[in-house]
Amino acid sequence: MRRVLVATAGGDCPGLNAVIRAIVKRASQEKDWEVLGSIQAFNGILWEPTEVKILDEKAVAGIHFQGGTIIETTNKGGPFAWPIKQKDGSWSTADRSDEMIRKLMYMGIDAVINIGGDGSQRISNALFEKGLNIIGVPKTIDNDLSATDTTFGFQTAVQIATESVDKLVTTAASHNRILILEVMGRDAGWIALNAAIAGGAEICLIPEIPYDINKVVEKVNSRFTRNRGFTIIVMAEGAHAIGDNTSTIQLDEIGYANSKISGGASRLMRELKGAGCKHDMRKTVLGHIQRGGVPVAFDRVLATQFGVKAFELVLEGKFGEMVSYRHPNITSVPFAEAISEPNKVTINSDLMKSARGVDISFGD
Ligand code: F6P
Q1: Separation between Cα atoms, residue 153 and residue 184, nearest integer Å
Q2: Ligand 1 pocket residue status of 186, Cβ below 6 Å
Q3: Mutate to test the pocket of ligand 1, among 73, 74, 75 (most ligand atoms within 8 A of CB)
Q4: Are 191 and 142 a contacting pair, CB within 8 Å?
Q5: CA terminus-to-terminus distance, the chain
Q6: Is the peptide bond before 295 cis (omega within 30 degrees of 0)?
Q7: Is the CB of 139 within 6 Å of ligand 1?
Q8: 70 pLDDT tier (thresholds 50, 70, 90)
Q9: If 0-12 CB within 10 Å is exposed, 13-18 middle and 19+ buried, where does residue 152 land?
């Protein structure tokens, strides 16, 4: 019996379960393969005792439309930065990657499939360079990976954000207000841009285009006649004014790898008031709602394609590669290419031209 270990790493994303199910179903066509899931990314392997789950067809039956991940995930720690508590109560990190690879050998694991975003694929690459047979599957609701046309989860997030804009329009129009919707997107404004176009917003603020608050106020004012009117602003959490930095908060979660962005919509409200904007305004921070719930059909299909391809790469022994969607094909790219460039909104793209063509202002 040969064994493949699956891990889901980083923030959860609608479609993760559909990937897991596809890996298991494709593997079971081969008869001599067993699929195991490591609980909470690689933590399940590093913990004592080890925590893995046998993923057979029964375990994955009907999970393709469930959000989250049945093997849990984490965006803390990892084999190269395992949190260790010091005697004085402070925390440092240890590199446990060699120990983990030895443990995987001892467990008879022939291959690993790591489903995760850019941070997770950096870990995949480092493990591959140490000799581990590993395949990556791209995952991000932010759509910020350039080595694939898109990832599962993104369309679901855009759908949820768009439905939120639709709801905000009716209340904004009824109250003659500015309503700000803050969506996820630390460094890339894809969710904000797509939801702004689909939802018919007037203003869209993204990290790629630092905004001039006076231009934002100008656009807002053009939407009001003697205090009657309304404006919808969709902003990515990482959007900020020219010369300003995004607000981050320090989390006291041990081993949290990223700085946590917070407070963009509140800051924008202060800036609007500071620039003389007198209209009533409210904010909605969509947060983790856009990452939860059932994946839309497109994401289930893509996730299924990714899962099947990942297992086929294992069969081919094509390790050190991340699955990639290059329309209409499902292909793969070496890890080094997969992590080299983030996918950001291109300022002169057709999508941006379409947005400007329907009068969406980016505050520039
Ligand atoms: O997956 C990336 C992301 O969605 C970012 O846009 C966001 O900043 C981050 O996850 C938040 O993750 P969490 O709060 O779960 O750590």
Answers
A1: 12
A2: yes
A3: 75
A4: yes
A5: 60
A6: no
A7: no
A8: very high
A9: buried
For the purposes of burial, counting CB atoms within 10 Å of the CB of 70, is it exposed (0-12), middle (13-18) or buried (19 or more)? Answer: middle
Mean pLDDT along residues 41-54: 97
pTM of the model: 0.96
- Chain centre distance of CA 40: 16
How far apart, in whole angstroms, are the C-alpha atoms of residue 141 and residue 184? 8
Mind listing the domains of the chain with CATH numbers?
A: 2-152+295-338 (3.40.50.450), 154-292 (3.40.50.460)
Residue 257 has pLDDT above 70, yes or no: no
Q: Is the pLDDT of residue 261 over 90?
A: no
Question: What's the full length of the chain, in residues?
Answer: 364
Residue 145 DSSP one-character state: B
For 118, the token pair is: 């850019």
Q: Where are the alpha helices (DSSP H) in the chain?
A: 16-28, 43-46, 57-60, 97-106, 118-129, 154-175, 190-199, 213-222, 264-274, 297-316, 335-338, 350-357
Query: What gap in Å lies between CA 190 and CA 151, rounded to an integer?
Result: 12
- Given the residues 118, 142, 144, 187, select the one marked as catalytic: 142
Model pLDDT for residues 182-214, shown as the tens digit of each residue: 999 999 999 999 999 999 999 999 999 999 999
Ligand 1 neighbour 125 (Cβ under 6 A)? no
